[in-house]
Design goal:
The chain is of the alpha/beta class. It has a single domain (6-303), classed as Alpha-Beta Barrel (TIM Barrel). Helix content is 42%, strand content 13%. It has an eight-stranded parallel beta sheet with strand order 3-2-1-8-7-6-5-4. It is globular.
Length: 306
């Protein structure tokens, strides 16, 4: 017999992958998935019995082996209500499955060239003014931003530059109901020379801007490496933290007992502050198979379901 046309073979491969994903999610969660095609799966896919105290999200980039549609299906089946770090190109797919874009991206230049360096202010201003409108028009709220690298500049001078730059866009964010969230990174292991590598610098930035539409994305993994003292920092400064990321330390993998942080206590501390935003899983799963990766995601949501 002659080989199938390439487009037919590709279609068969995609169908087989979708069927596999359905079976994996079914096996991991016990969810009752529709037998219809992936594109017409219902939004009320049965998930885990969660307590509902935490709004759960997962970072898109950590599950890059899945298409955005496949990740929506898996996330929905497990019990996640949102996906983090998603740009406009994928918002239509999220809406199709009733998944929120909990942290929008795409306005940034990169992680190194940010608001603490005035030479990037003009370009960043143009990009963020446009993206604020895109986020607001899509019905979303959170838009990520970055300090960028120090490049020999003192913390005080970098803070001044960041305030001056962000003031050019924060008024528009307030008008459109969008919250700019600057992520805190560690500069010890992952992002050498990054400016916002400690919570004190970020909090000072929030205070000087004085806007409810500017918050910090408190990345628990990064801040454990940079400064530790996670729970007390959250308790004392939660008004400045608009979003949380998780991952295991060391290694940025699963948040289970293979690493040093005890996430149930951390998530309880977050919940006790009255936080109503999202806690997003941003760990890199260690299993090589899709099934194993979905199992890691299921384990994470159960650990954080306080």
């Amino acid at each position: 017999m002659p080989d199938k046309p390439m487009n037919s073979a590709l279609s068969d491969a995609l169908i087989a992958r979708r069927d596999l994903l359905k079976k994996l999610v079914l096996g991991v969660t016990g969810a009752s998935l529709s037998s219809s095609a992936l594109a017409t799966l219902p939004e009320d896919i049965a998930g885990l019995k969660l307590k509902g105290n935490i709004h759960h999200s997962v970072a898109r980039w950590t599950y890059g082996e899945l298409t955005i549609e496949e990740l929506c299906i898996a996330a929905k089946a497990i019990g996640f209500s949102a996906i983090d770090l998603i740009g406009p190109a994928d918002w239509t797919t999220l809406k199709k499955y009733g998944i929120d874009s909990s942290m929008c991206n795409g306005a940034e230049l990169n992680l190194e060239d940010g608001w603490a360096d005035p030479k990037f202010h003009d370009e960043l201003t143009e990009r963020y003014l446009k993206h604020i409108d895109l986020v607001a028009d899509a019905g979303y709220r959170n838009l990520i931003c970055f300090s960028g690298n120090k490049r020999g500049v003192s913390p005080e001078e970098g803070l001044k530059h960041a305030v001056n730059g962000l003031k050019r866009v924060i008024g528009h964010a307030e008008k459109r109901g969008v919250i700019l969230q600057m992520e805190l990174f560690n500069s010890k292991v992952d992002h050498p020379d990054y400016f916002a590598d400690n919570s004190a610098w970020g909090i000072a930035l929030c205070q000087q801007l004085g806007s409810a539409n500017f918050k910090l994305l408190y990345d628990i993994y990064h801040m454990q490496i940079s400064e530790g003292d996670i729970i007390r920092t959250i308790q004392d400064n939660h008004e400045y933290f608009g979003h949380y990321h998780t991952a295991g330390v060391p290694g940025r993998h699963e948040i289970n007992d293979t690493q040093e942080l005890f996430y149930p206590a951390i998530i309880k501390a977050i919940n006790a502050t009255g936080f109503s935003g999202y806690v997003a899983q941003e760990f890199i799963p260690t299993p090589k198979t899709i099934q194993g990766q979905i199992e890691s995601l299921r384990e994470a949501i159960l650990i954080c379901d306080v």
